[in-house]
Design goal:
The protein is α/β, with parallel strands linked by helices. It contains four helices and six strands, in the order βαβαβαβαββ. It has helices spanning about 25-35, 55-70, 85-95, 110-120; strands spanning about 1-10, 50-55, 75-80, 105-110, 135-140, 150-155. A six-stranded mixed beta sheet has the order 3-2-4-1-5-6, sandwiched between helices. The radius of gyration is 14 Å and the shape is globular. The termini are far apart.
Amino acid sequence: MKQLILVRHAKSSWEAPLRDYDRPLTGKGIQDAHLVSSNIGNQIPKSFVVWSSAAKRASETAMIFAQNLSFPVESIAFKEELYTFDERKLEQIIKSCSDEYEHLIVFGHNEAITNFVNKFGNIFIDNVSTSGFVNIIFDKESWNDIENGVTQKVIFPRDLK
């Protein structure tokens, strides 16, 4: 069995004249990331590998989750290739995960996340919101073989307010 947790980065700022890659979280984004990460402890397996897009907004979101879920920031693998909006690229990256890991947590970007969860999960989600959390279980032994997963849990900040 493989468990995939996808988290869309928290709300980011468009105010500063920065490259998209360098946009930081807004105050609301920081609050929402803390809110969601503080309410998902029962959804997180005992052992897992964590990957995050290296973009500022995704990496900041991953660090907030690490703080609230008590896993070391040093354990997060920041991957340039996760800075993608294409679900086919996201699928390729996830399927490259070593089969020694049963549980993978990925922090990334839309449209890739919404399209991925709609392709691989069994619940249609119109839009995975910022700071959105989606937990999908696959009855497979290899990441490369994942398909037709069961969406176990979906949590958006609005669900917790």
